[in-house]
Amino acid sequence: CSEENVVAPETDAMKALSLMTRTGSSRLMVATGNRLVGILALKDMLKFLSLKVELEET
Predict the structure, then answer these.
(1) pLDDT in tens, the chain (58 residues)
(2) How far is CA 52 from CA 36, 45, 57, in A?
(3) Rounded Cα gap, residues 40 and 45, in angstroms
């Protein structure tokens, strides 16, 4: 994977979504240093945004 598809665990969700949009990637690798600790999928981000909008409406 390239550095443009890698984010740190503490990366803000909106920044991660922006990176996905900019790179055209539907997945980002979550890494600490050279160690892969997770994968963030666009599908997960869309669920997050849906929940965020729902919570803001209440």
Answers:
(1) 678 899 999 999 889 989 999 999 999 999 998 999 999 999 988 898 898 898 998 7
(2) 27, 10, 9
(3) 8
- Domains along the chain? 3-57 (3.10.580.10)
Rounded to the nearest 5 degrees, what angle is found at the Cα of 51, between the Cα atoms of 50 and 55? 120
pTM over 0.85: no
Helices (H) and strands (E) in the chain, counts: 2, 3
Q: Are 31 and 6 in contact (CB under 8 A)?
A: yes
- What tokens were used for 32? 């600490």
